[in-house]
Amino acid sequence: MRQCVAILLAFCFAFGSTLALAQAPAEGGAEGGAEGGGRGGRGGRESWAGARERWEQRRMEQMKTDLKASDQEWDVLKPLIDAVQTKMRDSMAGRRGGMRGGRGRRGGEEAQPSGTELTALQQATDALRKALEAEGTSAEELKAKLAAVRAAREKNEAELKQAREALRAVLTVQQECQLVLRGVLD
What we know:
Layout: H1 2-23, H2 45-67, H3 71-93, H4 120-133, H5 139-168, H6 173-181
């Protein structure tokens, strides 16, 4: 079940990001129209970051509306929702290479945004991946790295559960239902 939820979340993220990028030129307006203007041009890194940020802002505004949260309530809810979503992303990043991809254009060290540190789960996953790719890695070393990944996943799942409980404690029943439907709560 968790695997299905993780796959669904990854698909939704990928689809939503693609949709945001597809809509970005249409929203150009005073920012630069067809050329991309102040966003770094078509297909540039700044364009992707700007589109992703706008998509995230619209998503959070819609969530606030769906939760029927006042500004004061939102000031309490938003950090708790962010904490849950961060733990969910961390959990996905530790599976199948997660958002870092493992290989290809977005894989490797370049995929980690500058100024951010790898989580313990990402570090353990990277160490296991590198050990698998290295020839001559002993079975004992692989078992140790595999145990580290499993321990990091368990720790992350416990932190996710704790973050969800903290969020659940301040929600109304209707708000909890909305967040279950959105996949933020289980």
